Amino acid sequence: MAEGYCVKCKAKKEIVDAVEELMKNGRKAIKGKCPTCGTVMFKILGGKAAPKAATPETPPA
Description:
The chain is an all-beta fold. The chain has strands at residues 3-6, 11-14, 16-22, 27-33, 40-48.
């Protein structure tokens, strides 16, 4: 599981019900809830998401 910082509890905790999302700028993030208080926790992951590779089409011989 991912670990994030809860602003309400002011401590690092494991993110429960974590779901990986793709932000508008193309970066990946994890969104879930704090196990203690239930506040939404959000952690931005490093790097941009890899673009989907297009399959190269070969012309018929």
